[in-house]
Amino acid sequence: GWGVTLDGRAVKTPARRDLIVPHENFAEAIVAEWQAQEGEIDPLAMTLTRLANTALDRTTPNRLQVIDEVAGYGKRDLLCYHAADPPDLVALQVEHWQPVLDWLTEAYRAPLAVTGDIAPLEQDKASLVAVFSAVARHNDFVLTGLHAVTAVCGSVALGLALLDHRIDVAETWSCAILDERFQAERWGVDADVESRWAEIRAEISTAGDFMSLAQNQAG
User: Fold this and answer.
1) Alpha-helix runs per DSSP H in 84-190
2) Helices 47-54 and 24-35, axial angle in degrees (round to 10)
3) Which of 144, 210, 192, 199 is nearest to 176 (CA)?
4) H or E stretch at 108
C-alpha cells in the first residue's frame, strides 16, 4: 500500500498503526487534506483521514462485526417502510425508492419486501444472505465507507447503490430525507433541521469519495 509521512515521519492512526492505504491516488487525497491544514491541525476537517483511521483501527480488526452491522440494515431498510398516506408522499416514495430496490434485486438477487405498516417486516432469508454477500465482497476501506453511508441513511440499499454508481450523492441524500422534506414543504423547516440535512449530505459525499478512492476510481 501507500503511506503518508509528515515531517519525514509516518502518519499514525489513533491506535498507532501506520496510515497505509491501498492506492496512490488515495494517499495523495489524504496528503492534500494535511497540506490544507493551517495553524492547528483540525482532525474534523480531514474527513478522508478520519475514515481511513476508522478502516484501520476498527474495521480491519472487527471486519465480520462491521459486515454484520451494514448487512443488518437489510432487515429494517428505510426504503422498505412506505407511508400508508397521504397519497402524494406514497407516490414520491414509490418514484424514488422503488427503482433502488428494483436495482438491488437485479444486481444482487436480493429482493426486499415493502410494507405500508409500521410493524417490522420479516425479510426473506435468501435476500438477507445476498445482501450480506454483496457487503462482504469489499475490502476494509470500501466497507468503512459503505458503513458510513448506510448508517447515516438507514439503508444498505442506498449505500450499495451509491457504491455501484447506480445513484449519485444528490439522489442518495434526497432518498434518505424524503419523508422529512415532504413534511417540511408543508409545515416549514428551521435552521437546525437544515443544518442536520447539510451534515447528512456532507457525510454521504465524503463516504462516496472515500469508496471511490478505495476502489481506485475517480471520485
Assistant:
1) 87-108, 125-136, 140-153, 156-163, 169-176, 178-187
2) 130
3) 199
4) helix 87-108
The answer to whether the CB of 216 falls within 8 A of the CB of 25 is yes
Length of the chain measured in residues: 219
Name the phi and psi angles at 104, rounded to 5: -60, -40
CB atoms within 10 A of CB 77: 27
Query: Strand, helix or coil at 137?
Result: coil
Of 10, 59, 55, the C-alpha closest to 31 is: 10
pLDDT tens figures, 161-183: 999 999 999 999 999 999 999 99
3-state secondary structure of 217: coil
Taking a C-beta distance cutoff of 8 angstroms, is the pair 82, 97 a contact?
yes
* pTM, 2 dp: 0.93
- 216 Rama class: left (phi>0) / alpha (psi -120 to 50) / beta: left
Name the DSSP letter for residue 115.
Answer: B
Phi, psi of 21 (to 5 degrees): -120, 160
CB 142 within 8 A of CB 52: no
**Nearest by Cα to 105 from 83, 82, 80, 136:** 80
